[in-house]
Amino acid sequence: SQQGEEDPQALSIQEGENATMNCSYKTSINNLQWYRQNSGRGLVHLILIRSNEREKHSGRLRVTLDTSKKSSSLLITASRAADTASYFCATDPGNTGKLIFGQGTTLQVKP
Amino acid sequence: GAVVSQHPSWVICKSGTSVKIECRSLDFQATTMFWYRQFPKQSLMLMATSNEGSKATYEQGVEKDKFLINHASLTLSTLTVTSAHPEDSSFYICSASPGLAGGITDTQYFGPGTRLTVL
């Protein structure tokens, strides 16, 4: 499979806690993207980090990228019940727009 | 941000019938759109690349005669599932990027998805 790995597969935390999800990929990349998917819905783009960037912030989100380890992490700080969703990382190894998605992490934030 | 719509949002059909799903970029033009399929509790798998004015390119294992793709304009791509069977039941999602040009990829915007149930 060309898909990357994500861990954990499922994560359950209390509101206010931080959530960290990890993603590993297999080929060299120009950028890596993180998406959120609420149950039965489409994907919402969260953040794009380019291969020459090591860390990027957007609101309560922090993404890191380690190209030497072919891995990325998504940190959600001060989580809210509304953050409950599945989170996917995606890469585009061929620079063609064809995204390869990780397996996803299902996050549950309990109020 | 850029908006991509899909229609219908859900459809139930009988086995053997064909179903058409539309994907529209509402506020930008997209020479390329992508179709993904997602089975329950699984990730998205790319099915095909829809190219405006030319034939779609399909990923390995995806039957082009079963999943017909037409990219008639710069804002519309359609996916027709022909002779649908229960195993085709899935969540179909399209995406497009306003920044896809010159080999430089950018943020992909996804439609809300279409839930297909084949009885």
Class per helix and strand makeup of chain A: mainly beta
Number of helices of chain B: 0
Output the radius of gyration of chain A: 13 Å
Tally of DSSP β-strands of chain B: 11
**What's the number of extended β-strand segments of chain A?**
11
Order of helices and strands of chain B: EEEEEEEEEEE
Which residue ranges of chain A are poorly predicted, with pLDDT under 50 across at least 5 consecutive positions? Answer: none
Structural class of chain B: mainly beta
What string gives the helices and strands of chain A in order?
EEEEEEEEEEE
Distance separating the two termini of chain A? 37 Å
Residue stretches of chain B low in confidence (pLDDT < 50, at least 5 long) are none
Question: What is the topology?
Answer:
The complex is a heterodimer of chains A (111) and B (119).
Chain A lengths: L4 E3 L2 E5 L4 E6 L6 E7 L5 E8 L4 E4 L2 E6 L4 E6 L8 E7 L8 E2 L3 E6 L1
Parallel strand pairs in A: 2-11
Antiparallel strand pairs in A: 1-3, 3-8, 4-5, 4-9, 6-7, 7-8, 9-10, 9-11
Chain B lengths: L3 E4 L2 E4 L5 E7 L6 E7 L5 E8 L5 E2 L8 E7 L2 E6 L8 E7 L12 E2 L3 E5 L1
Parallel strand pairs in B: 2-11
Antiparallel strand pairs in B: 1-3, 3-8, 4-5, 4-9, 5-6, 7-8, 9-10, 9-11
